[in-house]
Amino acid sequence: MEIFGVPIQAFLGQLLLGLVNGSFYAVLSLGLAVIFGLLNIINFSHGALYMMGAYIAFLALDLLGLGFWWSLLLAPLIVGGFGMIIERLLMRWIHKLDHLYGLLLTFGLALIIEGVYRYFFGVSGQPYPVPDALRGATNLGFMILPNYRGFVVAASLVICLGTWYVIERTRLGAYLRAGTENPLLLQAFGVNVPLMVTLTYGFGVGLAAIGGVLAAPVIQINPLMGSNIIIVVFAVVVIGGMGSILGSIVTGLGLGVIEGLAKVYYPEASATVVFVIMAIVLLVRPAGLFGKER
Amino acid sequence: MNKTRIGFALLLVLGLIAPYTGAYPIFLMKALCFALFACAFNLLLGFTGLLSFGHAAFFGTAGYALGYSVKAWGFAPEFGILFAVAVSSLLGWAIGSLAIRRQGIYFAMITLALAQMVYFICLQAKFTGAEDGLQGVPRGNLFGIIDLGSDIAMYYLVFAIFMIGFLLIYRTVHSPFGQVLKAIRENEARALSLGYDVDKHKLLAFVISAGLAGLAGATKTLVLGFETLTDVNWPQSGEVVLMTLIGGIGTIFGPVVGGFFVVTLENELADKVGSWVQVIMGAIFVICVLAFRRGIVGELTALFNRRKDAGAE
């Protein structure tokens, strides 16, 4: 069976790969949106922290013999802690300035982190094994599903929807939304807003670290993986707008799928298709698909 | 504006005698190109308040346009440069008209993403030589008579180009058009309500900036004789932000100082610390943003003004 001249197996395989990539876009753009909401900073170091997550998984296995599941727990804690220290030490000082300075500061941080990893690991990739429990593949009848890839998509969906639930349906989330609207007023009600800002940043970059650990078995871990993905994620954020959490999930997954399809039908365009879509969205709907007109 | 005059005179004298001070001419020319690149970038960030994170696209594309037109079509250097500036201005118009549809932080992200698209096109296209880059671009004869093979002749051409670009930016900033740009930087909504076509002004500033960035990129390729993907890639866009930030955002001479500073630093550090250069650049970024936002020239001006105020009392 073929779809537009492409064997269905290859088609579904690329579609799945697109969904996997899209899951990373979704997790990363969600973290960016949460951070932007409260801190008014576009976190350029998000990609570098995602890369850190992947390396923590690699080092945990290599040096300590701790497997994938431990890394999935440890990486967000370590990276989140690291992020909170950065927030306390550096970002706090520019909170009141134009948010362009936030972009520049986090860009500098990204350069530092990436440079350090390049020094220790070079630019060649490191392989990371798929965890034992998720090896092999399941025959779904119409396609063979590699278990790990299915797991990545499912796990990302759980993470994203969990985040959505916490923010939209819990008391903590209500504080967060209130802080996004009007931090001063929230502080007047006795909420410790500076602490909340720090925790939010830690949470956002923790999400990036989880993304990095999830990505470790499907890609080659290398120091440049962060900056490669963050620019695409920026485009995803421009396309989807940062106003809605469900919007960033849908946009992330959708663009991953489109990228996967481009690999099947017109491989030359697969690297640029997201940017082309961004250009079209800017022409047709400048505020982004899910963004509010300001 | 006595200070500015002194600055100009100093720049002119320094530029004219520089090749005889024993400085390595290729280094001087490279630094001048980057200084012009930073000045072009500063026209947007410093005077219009737009942070473009994709200026490498114009710098690099112009480099390729010059290299290809001179090497494959046999263009004379002056036509090669004109062609490259036309190409980068056109690209600036295309990217600019998309990017100005959003403000602030989104503007930066859009320019970054579109520039990355240009990078991928350069990576895949035939005319750029992809990973190998465009090698062996001849300098040729300027106007058919001046042999640019000599570094001294080439240096004075680069210096002339730099001064033309620099004066053009100075003129733009101090024209009525430049005043509107500053109004947009300070308060876009008010500029709009006063009846200025904000989008048109922004776009024109973007195109001028892209064209001059292209002028710098084309000149650099002519000097070095090759062009590679480094010039179109995002770290280059970051570097020009850093040059402007160090020198002083929104100052006339700041980007020149910043350009020389960063090129010198890279030259000095490259052999000694290897891949730590990136870490050092990142650290300078962080320090500048946290403690040194006015940049070298901005801080000096502030110091000078404080002195003057103290003397007047």
CATH topology of chain A: ABC transporter involved in vitamin B12 uptake, BtuC
**What do the pLDDT scores of chain A average to?**
87
Q: How many structural domains of chain A?
A: 1
Q: What is the CA–CA distance across the termini of chain B? A: 22 Å
Biggest β-sheet of chain B: count, sense, barrel? Answer: 2 strands, antiparallel
Strand order of the largest sheet of chain B: 1-2
How are the strands of the largest sheet of chain A arranged? 1-2
CATH class type of chain A: Mainly Alpha
Separate helix tally of chain B:
13
- Unreliable sequence segments of chain A: none
Main interface pair?
Answer: A-B, 43 and 42 residues
**What is the N-to-C order of secondary-structure elements of chain A (H for helix, E for strand)?**
EEHHHHEEHHHHHHH
Distance between the termini of chain A: 48 Å
- What percent strand of chain B? under 5%
| Helix amount of chain A | over 70%
Give an overview in words.
The complex is a heterodimer of chains A (294) and B (313). With 294 residues, chain A is mostly helical. Chain A has one domain: Orthogonal Bundle (ABC transporter involved in vitamin B12 uptake, BtuC). Helix content of chain A is 71%, strand content 3%. Chain A contains eleven helices and four strands. In chain A, the strands form two sheets. A two-stranded antiparallel ribbon of chain A has the order 1-2. The model of chain A has no long low-confidence stretch (mean pLDDT 87). Chain B has 313 residues and is an all-alpha fold. Chain B has a domain of 209 residues. Chain B has a two-stranded antiparallel sheet with strand order 1-2. In chain B, a hairpin with a 3-residue loop joins β1 and β2. At the A-B interface, α4, α9 and α11 of A face α5, α10 and α12 of B.
